[in-house]
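User: I'm curious whether this sequence folds into something compact or stays loose and floppy. Could you predict its structure so I can see for myself?
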Amino acid sequence: MMEYEFVPSEAPTRHIVGVLYTGNGAEGEIGRLWGANDALLKSVPNRKGFFGVSRMREGLPVGHFDYLAGVEVGPADEVPPGLTLWTVSGGPVYRAWATIDQLRGTIDAFYHRFLPASGAEADNRGLVEAYPDDFEMSMPVALEFPVMASL
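Assistant: Here's the prediction. I'll summarize afterward.
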């Protein structure tokens, strides 16, 4: 079994504009979402980095979530037509690093093994994936798992 390391930290508030997907991601939709919108996201003025944000929402089928593939912008920046703006509040998180192939296993390990044993409570501010500008599939992605309890 793979060993996972979850490091307590604080995340900043981020303003992310991007393309919204709702589903369970079981058929590779999220990867296709990034690929189909790469040029659009790179054209956003004043962008800072690439971010994927996952949130649960009431009323969705079990296992489904909202996912925003986007870029960080300033709080006063204009939202380009066709894109959605999410403000992801800062606060306590556990950070981990994983390659794309390890994402699902790392997320499952956090929510099903680490979190219950930690005493912390999950927060639905948004699970953040932070991608470097020069991202390649073999590179690790920084994950920020939001929690409610002080770390």
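Summary: The mean pLDDT is 93. The radius of gyration is 15 Å.
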